[in-house]
């Protein structure tokens, strides 16, 4: 399903700051370069390595320089969390004193972009369009991959900011952008 999985590599990249917490984006390989903070792993549960499913007490004995939270989220789909999760996650980070938080999924595009956009919409009052455009500008133009993810962000915007966004007003998902680029390269 993921057409852009091997297009680019994402080491942790700063995206924005909310109060005292800096948020970063990475892919599953690049997150290993993130040190001293909280990692939000957005990989689907069926693909999670067994070491990452260890209890917290055992994780303390691993040589991983960060704390990790798993968020259930199938590839290409929307997260299995309530909209309130995005405000609650930021509050959790502030209360626990995390000043750096890095989001990652497998390729660092769909789930990572959608999660960061949802965080900005719910905590910075950005519009869904503004959040998607910002993340694509500062991280990668392929962030937020599917129609379902862009529609989800429109719903987050409506929930937190009372903006009603039609599907036509949302930016195109990056899978559509990628398909258009491929067609242009082939001369179709």
Plain-language structure description:
This protein is of the alpha/beta class. It has one domain (13-186): Protein tyrosine phosphatase superfamily (Protein-Tyrosine Phosphatase, Chain A, Alpha-Beta Complex), CATH 3.90.190. The protein has six helices and five strands, in the order E-E-E-H-E-H-E-H-H-H-H. A five-stranded mixed beta sheet has the order 1-2-5-3-4. The radius of gyration is 16 Å and the shape is globular. The chain starts with 12 loop residues before the first strand and ends with a helix. Mean pLDDT is 85; it is low at 1-6 and 46-52.
Descriptive keywords:
globular, alpha/beta, 188 residues, five-stranded mixed β-sheet, 6 helices, single chain, Protein-Tyrosine Phosphatase, Chain A, disordered N terminus
Concise summary:
By secondary structure, this protein is of the alpha/beta class. The protein is built from 6 helices and 5 strands. 37% of the residues lie in helices and 15% in strands.
Q: Helical amount among residues, as a percent range? A: 25-40%
Give the N-to-C terminal Cα separation.
22 Å
Query: What composes the largest sheet?
Result: 5 strands, mixed
CATH architectural label: Alpha-Beta Complex
Spatial strand sequence of the major β-sheet: 1-2-5-3-4
Give the topology string: H per helix, E per strand: EEEHEHEHHHH
Give the arrangement of secondary structure elements:
Elements lengths: L12 E6 L2 E7 L9 E5 L14 H4 L6 E5 L14 H11 L4 E6 L4 H15 L3 H11 L8 H15 L12 H13 L2
Parallel strand pairs: 2-5, 3-4, 3-5
Antiparallel strand pairs: 1-2
């Amino acid at each position: 399903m993921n057409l852009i999985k091997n297009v680019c590599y994402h080491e942790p990249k700063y995206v924005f700051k909310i109060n005292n917490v800096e948020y970063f984006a990475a892919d599953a390989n690049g997150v290993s370069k993130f040190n001293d903070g909280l990692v939000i792993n957005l990989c689907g549960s069926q693909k999670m390595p067994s070491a990452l499913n260890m209890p917290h007490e055992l994780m303390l004995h691993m040589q991983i320089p960060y704390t990790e939270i798993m968020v259930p989220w199938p590839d290409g789909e929307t997260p299995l969390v309530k909209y309130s999760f995005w405000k609650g996650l930021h509050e959790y980070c502030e209360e626990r004193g995390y000043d750096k938080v890095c989001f990652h999924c497998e390729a660092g595009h769909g789930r990572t972009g959608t999660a960061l956009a949802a965080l900005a919409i719910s905590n910075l009052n950005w519009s869904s369009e503004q959040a998607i455009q910002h993340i694509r500008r500062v991280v990668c133009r392929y962030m937020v991959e599917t129609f379902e993810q862009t529609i989800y962000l429109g719903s987050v915007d409506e929930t937190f900011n009372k903006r009603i966004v039609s599907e036509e007003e949302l930016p195109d998902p990056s899978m559509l952008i990628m398909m258009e680029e491929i067609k242009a390269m082939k001369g179709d």
